[in-house]
Write a structure and sequence with these properties.
By secondary structure, the protein is α/β, with parallel strands linked by helices. It is built from six helices and five strands. Strands 3-2-1-4-5 form a five-stranded parallel β-sheet, sandwiched between helices. The longest helix has 17 residues. It starts with a strand and ends with a helix. It binds adenosine-5'-diphosphate. The site of adenosine-5'-diphosphate has 17 residues, from helix 1 and strand 4.
Length: 158
């Protein structure tokens, strides 16, 4: 059985992340969305809140699970039996970053990184941009994040 891990901060989940999850769910038997703690980024939602939000959004995808990740990515993958890491690429900056991380991970363990290109309409969506327009009171966050995330953002930012 092919198991893939899609790790990320998801602070919050955007339509760009969701597209990657949906496409990965068609490529692999099982996909685990791993919510990590990115210490260099100030988080708006706790890992538990993110798991709840993402689980609601992916409820219609039977082969997708959402969980909090701990430890090194490759150690966590070994615990859940995942051989594939899925990441999304929006631009050349993402590519440079992902290539370096993929190199480290493949040196550490027998894992394969699969990079999925962002759809053109999602290329400019980032969690930080969504937080920024949300805090400016913009009501068109729905273009960039699923409805439940819009509601959670409104509540958190008010
Ligand atoms: P991290 O802090 O691990 O980069 P993010 O939540 O920012 O976590 O991103 C997780 C993954 O999703 C990364 O591979 C990132 O490139 C990808 N990603 C982020 N935004 C988009 C988007 N709009 N379209 C496609 N992939 C995206």
């Amino acid at each position: 059985m092919s198991i893939a891990l899609f790790p990320g901060s998801f602070d919050p989940l955007t339509k760009g992340h969701l597209d990657i999850i949906q496409r990965a769910s068609q490529l692999f038997d099982h996909v685990v969305v791993g919510v990590g703690h990115n210490t260099s980024k100030q988080a708006l939602f706790t890992p538990e809140e993110k798991v709840d939000l993402i689980s609601t959004v992916v409820a219609d995808l039977p082969n997708v699970d959402v969980t909090i990740m701990h430890g090194l990515t490759v150690q966590f993958m070994s615990e859940i039996g995942a051989k594939f890491i899925v990441r999304g690429l929006r631009n050349s900056k993402d590519f440079e970053y992902e290539r370096d991380i993929a190199g480290v991970n493949s040196a550490l363990a027998d894992v394969e990184t699969i990079l999925l290109l962002a759809k053109p309409e999602n290329q400019n969506i980032s969690s930080s941009m969504v937080k920024e327009i949300g805090s400016m009171g913009a009501d068109n966050m729905a273009k960039f994040v699923p409805k439940v995330v819009v509601d959670a953002l409104k509540e958190r930012l008010n």
